From TrEMBL:
It comes from the Eukaryota. This is Endo-1,4-beta-xylanase. Pathway: Glycan degradation; xylan degradation. Its EC number is 3.2.1.8. It comes from Staphylotrichum longicolle. The lineage of its organism: Eukaryota, Fungi, Dikarya, Ascomycota, Pezizomycotina.
């Protein structure tokens, strides 16, 4: 198993919680992201002191100190096979991740490729499926099930797929096809791709603390 840890990373060069497709982003933010060729996600539930800002180009920033869950980030309205290159900084405590995050339909799957994290899935029932190594890093694979939780298709029961990087980083390239192919070898089937973003997520573990931190992420 991946060890639970606290992370403080700042590298310049660059819930578990299920976030639905829409959030409290403004129409101006949505239109700006679309004109720039990006999809901007800003979603939160029951939290305060969460600020996610859509910057120019592929950039977004987030600052938070909250017991509510949130997901924010920037990417594309269609996921699929992409080589996602990013730079930035990420500093966090409490439950949460910096991850490539996306959904598929038929079947409905929520997936994460975790690049860095603070507390990793405290008290969450993950099932380890094994390990794999690529030129981009070494990963452990997990699955989990969400029962009657928010999704891009409303309240549903669905599977989550996880690739968790063993040596954390903030900056580099994530080739999604590599992970999709490795998951397929384990019988973890994806459906038709919906959006994908480079996401920052924080949430509150059951009976535990919330999360806090800041990040600046730039898609190349």
């Amino acid at each position: 198993m991946v060890k639970l840890s606290l992370l403080t990373v700042s590298l310049v060069a660059p819930t578990v919680f299920a976030g639905p497709v829409s959030g409290p982003q403004t129409q101006t933010e949505t239109e700006l992201a679309r004109r720039q060729g990006y999809y901007f996600q800003n979603w939160s539930e029951g939290g305060s002191n969460i600020r996610c800002n859509n910057g120019g180009g592929g950039t977004y920033t987030a600052n938070w100190n909250s017991k509510g869950g949130f997901v924010c980030g920037k990417g594309w309205s269609y996921g699929g096979n992409r080589a996602i290159k990013y730079t930035g900084s990420y500093n966090a405590t409490g439950p949460g991740y910096l991850a490539v995050y996306g959904w598929t339909r038929n079947p409905l799957i929520e997936y994460y490729i975790i690049e860095a994290h603070a507390d990793l899935a405290p008290n969450e029932p993950w099932t380890s499926k094994g390990n794999f190594s690529t030129s981009e890093g070494d990963y452990e694979v997990f699955t989990s099930t969400r029962v009657n939780k928010p999704s891009i298709e409303g309240t549903r029961t669905f599977q989550q797929y996880w690739s968790v990087r063993k040596e954390q980083r903030v900056g580099g390239t994530v080739t999604t096809k590599t992970h999709f192919d490795e998951w397929a070898k384990l019988g973890m089937r994806l459906g038709n791709h919906d959006y994908v973003i480079m996401a920052t997520e924080g949430y509150t573990a059951t009976g535990g603390p919330g999360s806090s931190g800041s990040c600046t992420i730039n898609l190349q």
